[in-house]
């Protein structure tokens, strides 16, 4: 867990499918950059998939990694980029699925939103439990 102005905090990195269900999670300290953990998350990317990410993941090596896996990168360039890359703005609108997953996870367990857990292992276990609950909601029958 990293230290920030407010105390100990953690960033949650997630890979989400096109239905808005979480596939993978990774925790990093709050002061760590967003890009390095994507090496681990991108292992699950399949050919011909579109990978939507925010500007923090705008790096040539990330785009290269996505391209090598046969996927399509939909990542806007950083504002200070001298040679902005093209991206599908219409497809990028679907990135809100990731933000909605975080909202649903935090709504499921208040302990995640407020980060009550002291150890990263317990915090990750709660995140996985919340993700399991999201997957369960999809398959629960109303009858």
Short structural description:
By secondary structure, the chain is α+β, with helices and mostly antiparallel strands. The protein has a single domain, classed as Nucleotidyltransferase, domain 5, CATH 3.30.420.
Describe the protein's architecture and organization.
- The structure is a single chain.
- The protein has 143 residues and is of the alpha+beta class.
- It has a single domain, classed as Nucleotidyltransferase, domain 5 (2-Layer Sandwich).
- Helix content is 38%, strand content 19%.
- It has six helices and five strands, in the order βββαβαβαααα.
- It has a three-stranded antiparallel beta sheet. A two-stranded parallel ribbon has the order 4-5.
- A hairpin with a 2-residue loop joins β1 and β2 (7-16).
- α4 packs across α6.
- It is globular and about 40 Å long.
- The N and C termini lie far apart (43 Å).
- The relative contact order is 0.15.
- Residues 1-7 have low confidence and may be disordered.
Q: What's the helical proportion of residues?
A: 25-40%
As residue ranges, the low-confidence spans are 1-7
The CATH first-level class comes to Alpha Beta
Domain count: 1
What radius of gyration results from the CA coordinates? 16 Å
What is the overall number of helices? 6
CATH architecture, by name, is 2-Layer Sandwich
Mean pLDDT: 82
Largest sheet: 3 strands, antiparallel
Helix and strand arrangement:
Blueprint: E1 2-4, E2 7-16, E3 22-29, H1 38-41, E4 50-52, H2 60-68, E5 72-74, H3 89-92, H4 96-108, H5 110-114, H6 120-139
Parallel strand pairs: 4-5
Antiparallel strand pairs: 1-2, 2-3
Helix pairs in contact: 4-6
């Amino acid at each position: 867990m990293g230290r920030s102005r407010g105390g100990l905090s953690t960033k949650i990195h997630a890979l989400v499918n096109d239905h808005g269900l979480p596939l993978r999670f990774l925790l990093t300290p709050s002061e760590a950059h967003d890009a390095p953990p994507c090496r681990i998350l991108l292992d699950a990317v399949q050919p011909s998939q579109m990978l939507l990410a925010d500007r923090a993941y705008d790096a040539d090596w990330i785009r290269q990694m996505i391209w090598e896996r046969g996927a399509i990168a939909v990542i806007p360039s950083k504002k200070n980029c001298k040679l902005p890359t093209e991206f599908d703005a219409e497809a990028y609108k679907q990135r809100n699925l990731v933000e909605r997953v975080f909202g649903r996870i935090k709504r499921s367990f208040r302990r995640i939103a407020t980060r009550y857990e002291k150890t990263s292992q317990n915090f990750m276990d709660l995140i996985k439990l919340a993700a399991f609950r999201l997957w369960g909601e999809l398959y629960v029958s109303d009858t």
